[in-house]
Amino acid sequence: MYKSLIPNILTSANLVLGFCSILSTYNANYTWSTVFILLALVADGLDGRAARFFGVSSEIGKEMDSLCDLVSFGVAPAFLAYTYCLKDLDYFGWAVAIAFALCGAWRLARFNVNVAVVHGFFMGLAIPAGGCLVATAIWFFRSIGMETSSLEPAFPLVMIVVAYLMISEVHYPDFKGKGEKIFLASKIFAVLFFAAILFLGREAIVSAVLFAVFSTYSVFGLFNFSLSLLFRK
């Protein structure tokens, strides 16, 4: 009995931490909003490993995992972005936040349907990466003193792009060595992109590193997939 209890606790912790992020956003504690989303990512990464370790994987656990992911990496980041910098855009801000959560839900549903079909890569940006990208971006911009007014023209577009990447057919490497070919040019591009963010955020290195990790992965996958399509032609 205890073997199934541990992964179930971790899965539930994912949802609890996601809801804590929403409550932190409601109280305008944006740093903790991001921290809770990142902690939810840790719980999300451990529950599946714990289930496989104890040999207690189940269909209910898989579905529960997706539902928790939707809250922690779809709804919580969308609410954080809306409260922090989208609310002044009126209904357009509503639309961007809702679209992000909807695309996250679609991404999770498609993953569950294709889990036995798609191997060696992720089809579309995984919702934990997308949600953490939005959350760490806000933490990073706050850490370097960027005003919300300066984010309004670009940040909604970034969220739309991230939402699209989640439901796209872009192949993101899973780094297990059996999927998409990773080009040398993609690696160089990723290193340069990562270094550029660290340079810009050198005064707020913690938030810069976290934002660099998720943003670099997001653009790296798109860049590498574009190269693969180019060479196929």
UniProtKB/TrEMBL annotation:
Identification of the protein by name: CDP-diacylglycerol--serine O-phosphatidyltransferase
NCBIfam families: pssA
EC class name: transferase
Organism of derivation: Selenomonas sputigena (strain ATCC 35185 / DSM 20758 / CCUG 44933 / VPI D19B-28)
Record-linked Pfam families: CDP-OH_P_transf
Domain of life: Bacteria
Places the protein is found: Endomembrane system
Family in the record: Belongs to the CDP-alcohol phosphatidyltransferase class-I family.
GO cellular component term, pick one: membrane
EC number: 2.7.8.8
Reaction catalysis annotation: a CDP-1,2-diacyl-sn-glycerol + L-serine = a 1,2-diacyl-sn-glycero-3-phospho-L-serine + CMP + H(+)
Keyword match Magnesium: no
GO aspect biological process, one term: phospholipid biosynthetic process
Coiled-coil annotated residue ranges, if any: none
Keyword terms, alphabetized: Lipid biosynthesis, Lipid metabolism, Membrane, Phospholipid biosynthesis, Phospholipid metabolism, Transferase, Transmembrane, Transmembrane helix
Single GO MF annotation: CDP-diacylglycerol-serine O-phosphatidyltransferase activity
Residue ranges of the TM segments: 5-24, 91-109, 121-141, 153-170, 182-200, 206-231
Membrane-topology descriptor: Multi-pass membrane protein
InterPro entries attached to this UniProt entry: CDP-alcohol_PTase-I (IPR050324), CDP-diaglyc--ser_O-PTrfase (IPR004533), CDP-OH_P_trans (IPR000462), CDP-OH_PTrfase_TM_dom (IPR043130), CDP_ALCOHOL_P_TRANSF_CS (IPR048254)
Signal peptide: none
